[in-house]
Specification:
Strand order of the largest sheet: 12-11-13-16-17-10-18
CATH topology of the largest domain: Chloramphenicol Acetyltransferase
Radius of gyration: 22 Å
Helix content: 25-40%
Order of helices and strands: EHEHEEEHEEHEHHEEHHEEHHEEEHEEHE
Shape: globular
CATH architecture of the largest domain: 2-Layer Sandwich
Number of helices: 12
Number of domains: 2
Number of strands: 18
Strand content: 15-25%
Length: 464
Amino acid sequence: MGIQDSPARASNEGARPDNRLALLDQAFYAGHRAAGQREVMQVGWLYQRGVDVDGLKRFRDNLSHGLLGRLIERSPLPFGRHRWVCDPRPAEVAIAASARPRAELGDWFDEQAQLSLDPESGPGWRISAVPLTDGSTAVSLVVSHYVIDGIGAALAVAEAILGVTRDLGYPPPRSRTRLRALVQDAGGTVRDAPAVGRAFVAAMKEARRRQQDVDRSEPSRPTTVPASNADEPVTAPSIFIQIKLDEWHARAETLGGTNGALAAAFTAKLDEHMGRQHGDSSNVTMLLPVNDRTSQDDVRAVAVSFARVHIDPTEVATDLRGARAAIRDALKTSKETPDEASKLVALTPFIPKRAWRHLVDYGLNDPEQPAVCSVLSDAGPDAIRPDGTLCDGSFVRGASQHLTQRWLERVGSQLQVYFGTAVELNIASICVCAYHPNSVTTKAALRELAAQTLAEFDLTGEID
């Protein structure tokens, strides 16, 4: 199946749409920017042969005319709303000149995830490919998380492979004069005043409620003396696992669960082996991202919420019914519980950097130190053909850029698991990013614990 030579165009006719970022998108970007965080999404593909470079270039061109073809333009007002503008110069496809050993595949994907992206000046994303010495080829797409989230990226990839492009109606960068931008954004601020007022009242109530949690904004874990190289970039250990999908599905069914429940159980058991602590409970606290994207026309960069679940890791390798029930209840509670943050989001443009850093610290010092288990829907046949032909393996994951040893010590430990399937390839893929100062500081240590965990579930897989 090749990419269409005359792609269909999903056009937005009529008046130019409101190109202001959703307030939660602006909050996500502003908070991370103030704290020095940089998050990206990565999609990887593996071919057991060479790739069609022209096909990759068509893929890149189609991506540039979809949800990825945009950048953030900050308001000239310190309390103004940011806006989307079109991206006039997306990065070219980067093809490595020399082959890499197959054993370095995971390292290469990590390297691509660390290449600089800028959601304001561009590039906001990039495609790279590398031949491997065994004749296979790896392809990587890395996208700034402030441009799109994982589900949005999967949608953009599928559309680009099908040759579907969009006219989002965004203007070119700096198309407004400074005076016009000031007037427009000031007018928008005035119109938003009632919502800001209501948010301010809600914020005062929330501040009083959180007064008892004031200590949470301070480091809750034992502090260590920073090493001399504490501010040099490091990469948290990460691995890629491929398991036959029919084997994974059969095991989930045998244990009385689902594919998603088995992924959460794997996360809980791996968390236990790492020795991570979750407050006073012996259960593993876990965050499950929930897709809130309402339709293909939803252009928000971040459209997810999180359900918090507590899973007992002691029996999950032999019985998934408890974990499945806990997940079902957590998802129900998340759906029925009002999002308190939505009452405050109108304050986003008025929050200073210092307050953003405080909010990020508050989140980092969650006493339950939750793991993250992200279960993605099946890739589908349209998302596994980046050069127009069927690949032999794929994955999706999130990654943090430019971490430092100081940051890892500040966080204490982390575990993030990304699970996805590709029915056409009969593959279940798991990406694991983890760190614990006492158990997982290298890929080798993470591979060993992951292999041990798979064996407890009577599963086998290829680990890179």
